[in-house]
Design a protein that fits this description.
Blueprint lengths: L2 E2 L11 E14 L2 E8 L2 E7 L4 H7 L7 E10 L14 E12 L18 H6 L1 H4 L3 H23 L3 E2 L16 E4 L7 E4 L4 H9 L4 E9 L12 E10 L3 H19 L4 E2 L6 E3 H8 L15 E2 L1 E5 L30 H4 L8 E6 L2 E8 L4 H10 L4 H14 L7 E7 H8 L30 H7 L7
Parallel strand pairs: 1-2, 4-6, 7-10, 12-14, 13-15
Antiparallel strand pairs: 2-3, 2-5, 3-4, 5-6, 8-9, 10-11, 11-18, 15-16, 16-17, 17-18
């Protein structure tokens, strides 16, 4: 007999079925035992009656979180016993067979979600595999899967090619600290975990792949915030050749509008098309570069997407007397402002574009600079010497000598978008196995010390404070 999911039983009234799952709640009523059986699809009530004496005796041993197999007949509940709070509340399973597949200790916190004070993050993350049994958390992970699949299907239909880029890469200055990985084969040298696939995706454009994307893990050694993980996050990384800025923005707007309509039909997008506001106007009118344009701030289902364009190429404040790129050095300066790189760099606009949603930045990208002379000038302005440029970006500069197409793209944060759509308090709640706010994983005890043998192989010495 094939296993059914609990959500499927309502279409099998009068039929014998086999179910597997966890005991959610168990209670006795007279000589009968009632069990709520939980699996990944939901919950259904199972009734154990005295006419199946052996089965009933086994049912009396059941405790919350026992793993069981139940065979029984799907029966329609009497009208007065229908549970309208459950999708399967019109039926119940009249048990005929029961196997206890695994027993469970008493969990350190309730799996059944109640109105009691929420369990602390430290305890929840230590037992994350139990925390993920909760309906709210399972829903978040399942919706995440559906969202990623929708993105993939949409882009494949648009002719994009999904390509994975290396996880062990070269350390380059990209704004945040790198996670460094020592090389055993090359003592004293290090790989870096990529902060983004920026250089690789540009190299893929030079390689002739006109439309690239991937759901990319990105690693940045920085402090945690509600909207930023302290270790890694995932982004929709996308690049296109032979495009202008409008082509990139139009694509993302079509993708997100269609995705919201399909997966979050209760949500309403405020503007269609999305506004495209110059950076200077946003700062003057709203006082920030990620304005919240919702018409009703109290409406949890309103989504106000907005593009911010015409960014200044450099930040207003210099660092150690050098300019600092607002986005990154491979962003193209605005066509009308290229000459200003020589005379007045602070006035140069760029082809950078960001997306804000309800006051949160959720994506950023640009049209890329492909003129080696312009790149050399930008590197000079940000204080990178020719020797440093050759060491850090020599491979890119050389690649640009072999026929580089005009190209541009965008990187859209998956975790941050989901947190907004699901109204999660922080992005840790939409990740299967997150770190705590101070970048620890209580479940596995990570980070942990390396063994003496591992350090010896890597020729590393640990200096204690």
């Amino acid at each position: 007999m094939e296993r059914l999911l609990t959500k499927e039983v309502i279409s099998h009234i009068g039929k014998k079925v086999r179910l597997n799952g966890w005991v959610h709640v168990t209670r006795r009523l007279g000589k009968m035992v009632f069990v709520e059986l939980r699996d990944v699809s939901g919950i259904v009530q199972v009734v154990f009656t005295p006419d199946k004496k052996d089965v009933l005796e086994t049912a009396k041993k059941l405790r919350p979180e026992f793993v069981v197999e139940i065979v029984g007949t799907v029966a329609q509940r009497p009208e007065k016993l229908v549970n309208k709070e459950m999708p399967t509340g019109t039926v119940e399973i009249q048990a005929e067979g029961l196997k206890i597949l695994a027993e469970s200790k008493t969990p350190p916190f309730e799996i059944v979600e109640t109105e009691k004070e929420e369990v602390g993050e430290e305890l929840r993350f230590k037992y994350r595999y139990l925390d993920l049994r909760r309906a709210r958390n399972q829903r978040s992970i399942i919706i995440r899967s559906k969202l990623v699949k929708y993105i993939r299907d949409f882009l494949h239909k648009e002719g994009f090619i999904e390509i994975e880029t290396p996880i062990l890469a070269k350390s380059t200055p990209e704004g945040a600290r790198d996670y460094l990985v020592p090389s055993r084969q090359y003592p004293g040298k290090f790989y870096a975990l990529p902060q983004s696939p920026q250089q690789y995706k540009q190299l893929l454009m030079i390689a002739g792949f006109d439309k690239y994307f991937q759901i990319a893990p990105c690693f940045r050694d920085e402090d945690a915030r509600a909207d930023r993980a302290p270790d890694q996050f995932f982004q929709l990384d996308l690049e296109m050749s032979f495009v202008e800025q409008a082509d990139v923005l139009d694509l993302i707007e079509r993708l997100y509008a269609a995705m919201v309509k399909e997966l979050f039909p209760e949500k309403k997008i405020t503007f269609s098309p999305w506004p495209r506001i110059p950076y200077a106007e946003a700062m003057k009118k709203y006082g920030n570069d990620k304005p919240d344009l919702r018409k009703d701030k109290n409406d949890p289902n309103e989504l106000a997407f907005v593009f911010i364009v015409d960014w200044p190429f450099f930040e207003a404040e210099k660092k150690d007397g050098k300019y600092v790129a607002n986005h990154h050095i491979f962003t193209a300066p605005h066509s009308d402002d290229v000459a200003l790189l020589e005379t007045d760099p602070g006035r140069v606009r760029s082809w950078q574009h960001d997306i804000a949603l309800n006051g949160n930045e959720i994506a950023g990208g640009s049209i890329r600079s492909t003129d080696p002379k312009v790149l050399e000038k930008v590197l000079e302005l940000v204080g990178v010497t020719k020797e440093e440029a050759k060491t850090q970006f020599g491979h890119m500069m050389e690649a640009f000598e072999y026929g580089v197409p005009p190209h541009g793209g965008i990187a859209c944060g998956i975790d941050r978008l989901l947190a907004i759509l699901l109204r999660a308090p922080n992005i840790r709640e939409v990740v299967a196995f997150p770190k705590t706010g101070d970048n620890r994983e209580p479940m596995t005890g990570s980070p942990s010390a390396a063994s003496e043998q591992q350090l010896k192989e890597l020729r590393l010495n640990v200096t204690k404070k």
